[in-house]
UniProtKB/TrEMBL annotation, chains A, B:
Keywords: Amino-acid biosynthesis, Histidine biosynthesis, Hydrolase. Pfam families: PRA-CH. Pathway: Amino-acid biosynthesis; L-histidine biosynthesis; L-histidine from 5-phospho-alpha-D-ribose 1-diphosphate: step 3/9. This is phosphoribosyl-AMP cyclohydrolase. The gene is hisI. InterPro entries: PRib_AMP_CycHydrolase_dom (IPR002496), PRib_AMP_CycHydrolase_sf (IPR038019). It catalyses: 1-(5-phospho-beta-D-ribosyl)-5'-AMP + H2O = 1-(5-phospho-beta-D-ribosyl)-5-[(5-phospho-beta-D-ribosylamino)methylideneamino]imidazole-4-carboxamide. Residues 29-102 form the Phosphoribosyl-AMP cyclohydrolase domain. It comes from Pelagerythrobacter marinus.
Length: 115, 115
């Protein structure tokens, strides 16, 4: 089965991108891509996003060096979300954690994984 | 380390939710939660979302029976996205596929996983 890729950007021109580490399938981060970010990602093989706060294209790791090499892109049924299966270079989170999802919810508290 | 849970809903009152199968860490679907969906999910243990198209609370599996039992909620660094680690009942995608992300991008085509 083969279908045409026709990404469905939302009213803000964005789709949701979930970054997964290919080595263990763990979710590293969630961000948004506009058409430009998607194109740059596919051209360069490095994950690019659209920063909603800065309103600008953002190469993940541009400052930190902690880039994400995209090995595979999965697309969901209605084509408004993608999973980027990546080989991360260094930690992904700006806090220094491997993943932005380094805490679990317990009651009304966030507890670091492993604690 | 413990921090207070203070979810950061966006301008539309939503945060992004990534559903992961606890058995193999695979991403099953991506959806959005408003405060109500988050509360209902935590009260019932079943994943609820906010349907952007219908503008309404949505219990995943309400019609199909293919619910998602939430085992753990991970929260990201800036608290605007969550990972719901779930035990899925039946396939998650409305197409009947286990995951909504059942296709990978190759060129400008979507190819079913396994093909």
């Amino acid at each position: 089965m083969s279908d045409k890729f026709e990404p469905k950007f939302d009213a803000a021109g964005l789709l949701t991108a979930v970054v997964v580490d290919v080595s263990d399938n763990s979710v590293r981060m969630v961000a948004f891509m506009d058409r430009e970010a998607l194109e740059r990602t596919r051209e360069t093989g490095l994950a690019h996003f659209h920063s909603r706060s800065r309103g600008a294209l953002w190469l993940k790791g541009e400052t930190s060096g902690n880039t994400l090499a995209v090995e595979e892109i999965l697309v969901d049924c209605d084509q408004d979300a993608v999973v980027l299966r990546c080989t991360p270079r260094g930690p992904t989170c700006h806090t220094g954690a491997e993943s932005c999802f380094y805490r679990r919810l317990e009651g009304d508290r966030l507890v670091a994984q492993g604690d």
